[in-house]
Design goal:
It contains one helix and 28 strands. It is mostly beta strands and 369 residues long. β4 and β5 form a beta hairpin. The longest helix is centred in the N-terminal third of the chain and has 10 residues.
């Protein structure tokens, strides 16, 4: 599979290289003690969770740059919204009344509550849905005891359990794009991860599994080539995640048949510093996190194809902010994730700007809540 970027997307990628600054917005909800932003679609609608004063965790959706927040329906227990497609369909997980985690889809309707649907799976196991494409195909995982199993939900069909690959189970389906390619992760018996690409066949649910080639060995960083754990896939089939284990580096794979690219860290002089990729847009920009010193705290990053950037250094109004983990990025360059603002754990929305001296867009003013 050859990865190509259309001219319009390439132009947008080039323009974003001139937009290194971001307006930051808190994504929170009244009465919460903390929140987190986990996914964003092309319209800028964000999903995640908020924790209330009683300690309950509830799935949320934010619109209008976070000004409008909706708590999603659940199965009765703690819940989180993990991903949203461009049609507004949301997927996530919710504990039921027996405190068993179940995967769900949430469809917007004429009410604020929307419509929540249990996606199915083995009754004795727990499920989590983590990604959805614009065709309604959902990727996730099921866990029973110490055993994980990747599964897909295809519209109108029973859950599809991903078959074993080279004699071992496939643990997690982590992403699916609009061409129905699926990125998956397999934990091998040698304690290393393999990245897998599920290549669609001629009919729904017909997949061929291929290994995503690991990064090339680096004489200065031990073991990066041994393990590859995907986290996300973009519309062209490019995948990001973490290569290696101790240490691990963010990677980008533009073609699963060729070696993945080591994206490095914020401190390339220290071979013990960690980084990871958690989301990737159509331009191949990777959002995630990196340490700056070995065994130190991580900060939210974006890799723009040529360099890794600490997002804390690019805020228009940085006072009070500590961006820790970027978890979603769309083709407008908007980034969501988790951090702290004025001492509180919050979700954030970053919107790029050409000039840090320009006023924030109307829905972002003021830049912080």
């Amino acid at each position: 599979m050859k990865i190509t970027i259309p001219c319009a997307v390439a132009f947008l990628a080039a323009s974003l290289h001139g937009q290194p600054y971001y307006h930051a917005r808190v994504l929170d909800t009244p009465g919460s003690v903390s929140s987190g932003a986990l996914g964003i679609n092309q319209d800028g609608t964000v999903v995640g969770f908020a924790t209330n004063r009683s300690g309950g965790v509830r799935a949320h959706r934010w619109m209008n740059c976070g000004a409008a927040s909706v708590e999603l329906a659940s199965f009765g227990g703690d819940s989180g919204a993990n991903a949203i497609n461009d049609l507004g369909m949301i997927v996530g997980h919710s504990a039921d009344m027996n405190n068993i985690t179940r995967s769900f889809s949430w469809l917007p309707d004429t009410t604020a509550d929307g419509e929540i649907k249990y996606l199915g799976g083995s009754q004795g196991s727990e499920q989590r849905a983590v990604a959805i494409n614009n065709n309604g195909i959902i990727a996730g995982t099921e866990r029973g005891g110490a055993v994980s199993q990747a599964l897909l939900y295809l519209p109108g069909q029973a859950p599809l359990y991903v078959p074993s690959y080279q004699g071992e189970p496939v643990d997690n389906a982590v992403g699916v794009n609009d061409s129905n390619f699926v990125a998956a992760a397999q934990f091998r018996s040698d304690d290393n991860w393999w990245g897998l690409m599920l290549v669609p066949g001629g009919k729904p649910g017909d997949y061929t599994t291929r290994q995503i080639q690991p990064v090339r060995p680096d004489p200065d960083v031990r073991g990066l080539e041994l393990s590859l754990k995907p986290e996300a896939i973009n519309k062209f089939g490019a995948v990001t995640g973490a290569a290696g284990r101790i240490p691990k580096h963010a990677f980008r794979s533009d073609n699963y048949m060729e070696p993945a690219i080591d994206l490095g860290t914020l401190n390339p002089s220290d071979p013990l510093v960690f980084s990871e990729g958690r989301a990737i847009n159509s331009m191949g920009w990777v959002a995630g996190s990196s340490q700056t010193v070995a065994f130190g705290d991580s900060v939210a990053i974006v890799h723009n194809g040529s360099e890794m950037i600490d997002l804390n250094t690019r805020l228009v109004a940085p006072a009070g902010w500590n961006l820790r983990l970027a978890l979603g990025i769309n083709d407008k360059g908007q980034i969501v994730g988790m951090g702290r603002y004025q001492g509180k754990d919050v979700g954030f929305l970053l919107t790029p700007t050409i000039d840090p001296n320009l006023p924030a867009p109307p829905c972002l003013a003021p830049a912080q809540q």
